Amino acid sequence: MPDVGEGLSEADILQWYVKPGDRVHDGMTVCEVETAKAAVELPIPYDGAVHEIRCPAGTTVDIGAVIITVDTAPDGGPEPADPPTSEPADPPAPEPEPQQALLVGYGVMNGSTRRRPRKPRAERERPARREAVPGAAKPPVRKLARDLGVDLGLLVPSGPGGVITREDVHAAARTTQPPVADQPVRVPASDERRVPIKGVRKATAEAMVTSAFTAPHVTEFSTVDVTRTVKLVQQLKQDPDLAGLRVTPLLLVARAFLAAVRRFPEINASWDEAAQEIVIKERVHLGIAAATPRGLLVPNIKDAHTRNLPQLAAELGDLVATARAGRTTPAALSGGTVTITNLGVFGVDTGTPILNPGEAAILAVGAIRTLPWVHRGKVKPRQVLTLALSFDHRLVDGELGSKVLDATAEILEQPKRLVTWA
User: Fold this and answer.
1) I want to staple 411 with a disulfide (CB 3.0 to 4.6 A). Which of 256, 338, 346, 401 is the partner?
2) What is the Cα–Cα distance from 312 to 379, expressed in whole angstroms?
3) Residue 376 DSSP class
4) 128-174 adopts what CATH topology?
5) Catalytic amino acids?
6) How far, in Å, CA of 173 to CA of 177, rounded?
């Protein structure tokens, strides 16, 4: 298992794309793993035939552990390429034969080839009638079944060609009398479902607890008339320079926030406890919180302060799409300096966001609503949203935080200030 992130100690194997006996070539993707930061596809650095899959899907593996061996001389080597038909209950990790190459193109750490203890043989073996059934389900369906506690060996496939579908799994999870291959088997009903805490969700939880109990949070709020910003968004959607790009209110919120940070750069900072120093960053790496199937991710746009509006729109769209597809790289998740979280997409008016560790400020953006508002001395329906800025009170006092929040709100109320502040 290569070190695919920055100092990560383990990864979860999500799925294998090969099996023993399959031919592989240098650079071919053989499996997908999930670290505490992202899902990553791993290539094999050898030509040959897969000799053994050491760690099945669902296994948590230490960095440096051997997860696959490859016979680099399958047509003439002294050892056969086919995997052994059986193995002892707890075999010691064998040293690879000279012709069996390991997935070490990234460098296996000496002394770090430990892995999780194997389960007892009885737990790893399956009854004969079930051996072919899990193979008829795609990896996402098998993972769903594990999460819901559904035994694939007891299901009657309903998909084309005898494939078990997601609907089959959900139906089995909802009833105490699921369809089975041989005879009815009663599954105990339960009023709870347990999901292992691992991968991105585990890392997020640890980071948020650390942040909440390390940095003294202060949150300030500002409710803003953004009618002009909403109109500008509609106009920009017709601009040829932004053709093909996703133009939303969030884009202009990001632009306004970056302008406020540029005007008050002291908020683009971090607290160095060891050195007892406030570190003011010259570059703004803007994090955008994104909800994904694997949990909350906060990738960031590097040097966001240097991007013009079309560039910012393009990078913002790519960032969100990549995160939701589970293809965000560890590098994109590291080094953020300030963050925006968009609660408005969930219909929420506001919130008190928790800082990302190492950052001094995070801006929450609420839903835009049509509300009665005093405009030019008269009550009129206007487009209104609420901003919430949380900041680390060790290095950002109330004055600085208020100035940044007010500057962001001022631009959104009068977006032409984006020109005068540029």
Assistant:
1) 256
2) 35
3) T
4) Dihydrolipoamide Transferase (4.10.320)
5) 393
6) 9
Q: What is the pLDDT of residues 183-211, one digit of tens each?
A: 444 445 567 777 777 766 677 777 778 78
d(CA 237, CA 235): 5
Which tens digits make up the pLDDT trace of 13-46? 888 999 999 999 988 889 988 876 667 788 888 8
Instruction: Decide: residue 253, CB within 10 A, 0-12 exposed, 13-18 middle, 19+ buried.
Output: buried
The residue type of 141 is: V
Pick from 127-136, 219-228, 297-306, 308-317: least confident:
127-136
282 vs 28, 45, 218, 267, 302, CA distance in Å?
Answer: 40, 39, 24, 11, 12
Q: What is the pLDDT of residue 68?
A: 93
Q: Supply the DSSP string of 334-374, one letter for each residue.
A: S---EEEEE-GGGT-----PPPPTT-SEEEEE---EEEEEE
CATH architecture for the domain at 199-420: 2-Layer Sandwich (3.30)
Which DSSP symbol is given to 153? Answer: G
| Positive/negative CA dihedral, 203, 206, 210, 213 | positive
Question: What pTM was computed for the model?
Answer: 0.60
Strands 277-280 and 48-53: unpaired
For the chain, what is the mean pLDDT? Answer: 80
Instruction: Name the residue ranges covered by the structural domains of the chain.
Output: 1-125, 128-174, 199-420
**Residue whose pair of structure tokens reads 């769209």 in the numeric block:** 317
Residue 167 has what DSSP assignment?
H
Closest CA to 151 of 169, 137, 171: 169
Rounded CA gap, 205 and 198, in Å?
10
**71-105 pLDDT, tens per residue?**
988 765 444 444 444 444 455 555 544 444 444 33
Whether residue 45 contacts residue 104, with contact meaning beta carbons closer than 8 Å, is answered with: yes
Specify the range with the lowest mean pLDDT, choosing from 21-35, 216-230, 345-359. Answer: 21-35
List the one residue out of 348, 352, 388, 353 whose CA is nearest residue 368: 348
| Contact yes or no for 294/200 (Cβ under 8 A) | yes
Question: Both tokens of residue 77?
Answer: 């080597």
Burial of 189 (C-beta count, 10 Å sphere; 0-12/13-18/19+): exposed
Separation of alpha carbons 169 and 154, rounded Å: 10
